[in-house]
Amino acid sequence: MKVQLHQKGRASVDFLADLGMWSGGLGPTVNELMASRGLVDNGLAEDLDERIAQVDAAMADSPTYFAWSEMGEFLSKRHGVVAHEAFEEIKPEILPELDQLEKGPTQIERADQDPTPDYARGVEFHRTTGGWDGHPYQGFVHGEIIHRKYVAKNYPGDIFGQRRSVLSELPRQDYQRIFEMGTSSGHFTVPLQETFPDAQITGCDMSATMMEQAQRAANERGWNWRLLQVPAENTGLESGSFDLVASFILLHEMPASAIRNIFAEAYRLLEPGGDMLMSDVRPFRDMDRLTEWRAYYLAVNGGEPHWLEAATIDLAAVAEEVGFVNARSFAHIEEFRYPWVTVAHKPE
Ligand SMILES: C[S@@+](CC[C@H](N)C(=O)[O-])C[C@H]1O[C@@H](n2cnc3c(N)ncnc32)[C@H](O)[C@@H]1O
Predict the structure, then answer these.
(1) Domain with 187 in it: what CATH number?
(2) Where does ligand 1 bind, in terms of residues with CB under 6 Å?
């Protein structure tokens, strides 16, 4: 789907993307200023919440720190609003195409009642206006405007290439029945299908609004995905139905107990000999104190209430607790120490 924004929307989204780059560009200067004030290594408080307060207080008179933090705040508040406004401008011409692409082999099996787990209820993840169901066309708005035109320009590396290349970490390349957790707008589902062209893909998400964009992506390519609006931890599907269960950037949106439930559900859904691949954020234990501070600052101020818990637990250990063997967690791209991949095997 080719998306061309109108002048005002395009300029506004580009402005935010550029502002994100300027703000990111200030990062090394902020680090140097912090170092000059002793805010490195053991000069930083051990507790992460204390560390945030310590740095805020110690840097309060720094115009650079003020600019960096205020730009971040502005971007968090504005990106969803700007994307919705940009959508309104193109709405008359794009709606027929969006609605047409909901017709085709891929259909969504919708839940009778909102399946959102308590820990996600009412949360505006990423501080995106209204959260995952915040707009009737949020799947398109988030997937095609926010993700493709704003996030992709500000995240390290090629966020779409990463979704494809993590699949090279799998021990096999012949999967036939794949279950994806947290399908959202389909940005991981497309490379899954392209990498395993003969596989039947089933995806799930608690938000049908987000999955509508995955549905369009599949129908545009003539693919037949089964998309279910169910919580990933309790899919209601038959045990042993899949040979691969996978997710990309889902786990940091839930507390540790939910991650454990999701791994247990993945184990149940896999046939003996099947594999799990979960790709997510870099864990705190892989960072020095300064890097940890920045990651936690961005999570706290960026609408990520569960990031701390999710990035603290040892995912390979949790996988083995629920029955997997040969579980490994590691950085897929050395330069960024991201995406952080957990691969595990269900014994024969
Ligand atoms: C960051 S997005 C995932 C993005 C997508 N996998 C990709 O690669 O771009 C997180 C998605 O997971 C969904 N989600 C979060 N927790 C979930 C849960 N417990 N069960 C099902 N879906 C969930 C959200 O609705 C959202 O669409």
Answers:
(1) 3.40.50.150
(2) 117, 120, 132, 163, 182, 184, 187-188, 204-207, 210, 231-233, 248-250, 253-254
Q: Give dist(CA 50, CA 128) in Å, integer.
A: 27
Number of structural domains in the chain: 2
> Do residues 111 and 229 lie in contact, with contact meaning Cβ atoms separated by under 8 Å?
yes
Crossing angle between the packed helical segments 7-25 and 63-100, to the nearest 10 degrees: 140
Q: How far is the CA of 145 from the centre of ligand 1 (A)?
A: 17
Note whether 309 and 219 are same-domain residues.
yes
Q: Report DSSP state, residue 273.
A: E
- Domain span including residue 311: 156-345
Per-residue model confidence as pLDDT tens digits over 254-281 = 999 999 999 999 999 999 999 999 999 9
pTM above 0.90, yes or no: yes
Tell whether 304 is covered by a domain. yes
CA of 66 to the centre of ligand 1 (A): 32
